[in-house]
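Hi all, posting the design record for the shared folder.

TITLE: backbone redesign
STEP: 1 of 1
STRUCTURE INPUT:
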């Protein structure tokens, strides 16, 4: 019996020593430097455990990391019920000083405070923060220490502050409001809704120019509304995004979190095409509506586009860098109007384009049906020099075959009417410099007239090499003026042969 009493006495003594070490001021004083040392071994920054108070029913801890970060927590607890009722406060004056600890670079201050209440079966966290200049409140329910539900309300988050905080170029500024209610946080069984509103957005041209070599106009504004439903492993969003140059809408933008895949429909409307000059480097007029679908995954990107425009239709497929475009029955006059080019040819056109966006190489085949050359500088010169009105000719089928090398179009042209035939080989249009350099071999009845077209696309110089025409005219005049008896003589044949 005395051995049992001895063992019990030893256990009571050990428990008393453990209690005194864990839950008394002297014991806390002994443990504080030990815990501080263990933290210092794990944290690659100077740390100091400024306050360490642990009692059976309460605790208080203040940890200092470097000169700018303070983590505080205090409250009550019940060891037997394994419950807690505490508050916390995290104050980081400069996130960049924590790069060694976090592993990534962040900037600026971050503060959050709140409360934790519950036990091992259920715990609730309520807090607030001013992240990125916002007024943010959040609540998270934990079941067996696993996140189960969450509610967050973010008001007036500053886009430029957030980008700076994430160590990204400050491409834009604006306000973002987010209202999120997620009733199930299981990644495979998500359930909830997130409403996002973007207001007063303005793009900053300088960083966009530096990183993407795109000259954004200084007054490019944007706003948007995104309503997202979380269901299973997918987030399905209705998107309305409005900028000062275009509007973009999607009825169902679906992101599969498990597969990292995105699918969406879209409708892109541009009310004034000339506002896209900073992207196209081409002045245009008119408007356009483009609809289609986009599918992306870790392996591929696929997108379709359709537009009823220019009196016809345009359909395009983009897949992993290759673009295939089919243009049906468009009006060439409407096309030149849109591109602000002078009217040259009136017809209906069908085209097929294949273009590798990565190699910047492609081909274009075009067929123009029942076309007529419109009055222009070339037709005027031909009428003056050859007394021939080419605008009255009808070209039932005109073909153009083009190689696209970066921003250079190298084309072969063939067109034929009742009295004319027009050919061109390796004519060059330089889209970057907006110039043309080509020679048209124009056959009027039996006379060949090379016509050189060179200079700016909107107003090129046109030069007719009229040597053949002059010879033909001279021969006709000689035949008209020679006496009939001389025409049939050896001298007449000699004169005609000279010309």
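Okay, here is what came back for every position:
SEQUENCE:
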């Amino acid at each position: 019996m005395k051995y049992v009493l001895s063992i019990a006495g030893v256990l009571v003594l050990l428990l008393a020593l453990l209690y005194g070490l864990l839950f008394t001021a002297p014991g806390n004083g002994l443990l504080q430097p030990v815990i501080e040392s263990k933290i210092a071994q794990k944290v690659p920054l100077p740390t100091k455990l400024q306050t360490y108070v642990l009692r059976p029913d309460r605790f208080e801890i203040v940890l200092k990391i470097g000169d700018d970060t303070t983590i505080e927590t205090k409250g009550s607890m019940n060891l037997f019920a394994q419950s807690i009722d505490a508050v916390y406060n995290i104050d980081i004056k400069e996130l960049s000083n924590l790069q060694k600890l976090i592993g990534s670079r962040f900037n600026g201050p971050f503060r959050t405070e709140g409360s934790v209440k519950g036990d091992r079966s259920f715990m609730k966290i309520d807090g607030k923060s001013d992240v990125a200049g916002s007024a943010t409140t959040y609540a998270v329910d934990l079941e067996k220490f696993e996140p189960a539900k969450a509610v967050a309300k973010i008001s007036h988050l500053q886009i430029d502050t957030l980008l700076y905080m994430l160590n990204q170029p400050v491409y834009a500024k604006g306000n973002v409001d987010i209202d999120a209610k997620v009733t199930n946080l299981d990644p495979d069984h998500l359930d909830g809704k997130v409403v996002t509103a973007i207001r007063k957005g303005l793009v900053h041209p300088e960083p966009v120019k530096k990183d993407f070599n795109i000259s954004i106009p200084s007054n490019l504004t944007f706003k948007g509304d995104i309503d997202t439903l979380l269901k299973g492993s997918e987030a399905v969003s209705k998107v309305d995004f409005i900028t000062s140059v275009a509007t973009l809408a999607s009825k169902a933008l679906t992101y599969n979190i498990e597969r990292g895949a995105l699918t969406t429909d879209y409708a892109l409307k541009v009310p004034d095409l000339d506002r896209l000059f900073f992207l196209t480097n081409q002045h245009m007029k008119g408007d356009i509506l483009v609809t289609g679908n986009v599918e992306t995954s870790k392996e591929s990107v696929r997108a379709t586009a359709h537009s009823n425009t220019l009196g016809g239709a345009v359909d395009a497929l983009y897949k992993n860098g290759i673009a295939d475009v089919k243009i049906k029955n468009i009006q060439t006059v409407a096309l030149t109007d849109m591109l602000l080019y002078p009217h040259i040819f009136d017809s209906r056109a069908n085209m097929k384009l294949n273009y590798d966006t990565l190699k910047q190489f492609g081909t274009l085949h075009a067929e123009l049906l029942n076309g007529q050359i419109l009055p222009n500088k070339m037709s005027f010169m031909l009428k003056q020099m050859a007394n021939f009105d080419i605008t009255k000719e009808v070209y039932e089928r005109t073909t153009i075959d083009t190689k696209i090398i970066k921003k250079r179009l190298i084309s072969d042209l063939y067109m034929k009417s009742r009295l004319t035939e027009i050919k061109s080989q390796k004519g060059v249009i330089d889209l970057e410099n907006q110039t043309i350099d080509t020679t048209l071999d124009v056959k009027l009845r039996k006379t060949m007239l090379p016509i050189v077209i060179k200079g700016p696309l909107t107003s090129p110089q046109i030069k007719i090499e009229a040597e053949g025409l002059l010879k033909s005219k001279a021969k006709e005049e000689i035949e008209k003026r020679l006496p009939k008896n001389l025409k049939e003589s050896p001298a007449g044949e000699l004169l005609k042969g000279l010309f």
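COMMENT: Confidence is low (pLDDT under 50) at residues 1-10, 12-16.
Let me know if anyone wants the other runs.
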